[in-house]
Amino acid sequence: MIDLYALSVDKLGEMLAQWGEPGFRTKQLWDWMYNQRVASFDAMMNLPKSLRDRLSAETTLGVLELDTERTSQDGTIKRLYKLPDGQLIESVLMEYDDERRTACISTQAGCAMGCVFCATGQMGFARHLTSTEIFEQAMYFARDLEAEGNRLSNVVLMGMGEPFHNYDASLEAIRRLMSDLGIGARHITISTVGLVPMIKRFADEGLQVKLAVSLHAATDDERSALLPINKKYSLQDLIAACHEYVEKTGRRMTFEWTLIQGENDTAVQAHTLGRLLNGLHCHVNVIPLNPTGGFMGTPSASGRIDAFVNTLSEYGIPATVRIRRGIDIAAGCGQLKSEVTRRERPRPVQEDSDPAR
Among the three residues 39, 60, 81, which one is the final residue of a domain in this structure? Predict the structure, then answer.
């Protein structure tokens, strides 16, 4: 089966020409796919039935197979998709009161970064996603929202995987989000744990896409204990790369800080972070830990969160407390896949110890 979302407009035209279709069919089909965003060939009413039948028989609109879907009390939708090779990836749709609808999408099946509090990091790395597999996660949400009379407004590459570890495919997917889905660059965010060479490379791309860095600790010893990548790229090198990024792009960047009770939410950590980021055009997103089975930490209490944010303000660093969403549906990165995998894993057969049977 040919995945039509994997074809450029030129390749789509070549396929239809080989089928003996007139040239204008390419524009019609492309319009149904990306402007009308229909999920079925039957909906493409200005195409002849013979063409629709052949499209149904030989092609597909995407390769992601929905395995599990859950909807939270707060409206968050979590999806677990199965890829053609059996790998599982996650996507999340978050709807906000200001009518923003944000898709959080994955760039890898699993992750090689090993961040200790992240369910995806705990499961290890399986493979990179193709640019089409990355793009289609957002496309599916855009299709569904279009059918409801709504639109996808924002996309964050903060799902399973490290986008900069899969740099070329992630950037190609971002360009397609802009060109094929019409998502503005400033409404797209790419998140990294701090791959310094890729941050420098990204600064030269000339994109207005937002950059977020998962920081979570303000000293090398503490950060290396949470994010093993810090042993390769120290905080000094990381912050220097961030300064370079801001200077080249003129854009404010974001630091993600998961608050863990008694570990990185102390006054000492807040002051250390303030000094570390002092003078850098940035913003800090703080979010209480979303607990996982493989990490014993707990989310910070509200009083400690407020104190942390207030301390950062003393250094002129704006910070926002991000509301945890989808807690009741395992919406955190990698959590649903881990839960489903555990549930489906065969239980070991108990041998009968009675030799008389």
Answer: 60
Q: How far is CA 137 from CA 57, 106, 310, 326, 330, in A?
A: 23, 8, 37, 18, 18
Quote the pTM value. 0.89
C-alpha torsion 298→156→91→347, nearest 10: -40
What pLDDT is recorded for position 270? Answer: 94
Give the pair of three-digit tokens for residue 170: 């992630």
Active site positions, annotated: 90, 333
Indicate if 42 and 88 belong to the same structural domain.
no
Buried b (16+ CB within 10 A) or exposed e, 60-94: ebbbbeebbebebebebbbbbbebeeebbbbbbbb
Q: Tell me: do 300 and 333 sit in the same domain.
A: yes
Q: What percent of the chain has pLDDT over 70?
A: 89
- Strands 88-95 vs 77-82: parallel, antiparallel or unpaired: antiparallel
Categorize the per-residue pLDDT at 122 as very low, low, confident or very high, splitting at 50, 70 and 90.
confident
Same domain, 289 and 307: yes
Map 37-71 to HEC letters.
CCCCHHHCCCCCHHHHHHHHHHEECCCCEEEEEEE
Which residue range is the domain that position 13 belongs to? 6-60
